[in-house]
Amino acid sequence: MRTSTPADDPLQWPATLLDVGGLEAPEPMVRILEALDTLPERGSLRVLIDREPHPLYRVLERYEFRHRTCPTGDGRYELLIWQVPLSSAA
Fold this sequence. Notes:
The structure is a single chain. By secondary structure, the protein is α+β, with helices and mostly antiparallel strands. 22% of the residues lie in helices and 28% in strands. The mean pLDDT is 89. This is DUF2249 domain-containing protein.
């Protein structure tokens, strides 16, 4: 049985914060994708957004990103996005 370490847990990786609240479509998606282009290995992107980004989920899946979405309680959503490192994808 393999045990998990903080290095294996995306929730423990350094996160870059991106607040795209108040922006009109397609600007939130554009900014998120630009930020993902520069995401370091074992890094994550924490996004604050005004609505659940359903179209983004398909794009993330296509490029093999993982995500977790949680409502924040104030009508917004917090989205954590990461990519499984190649060394862990086996």
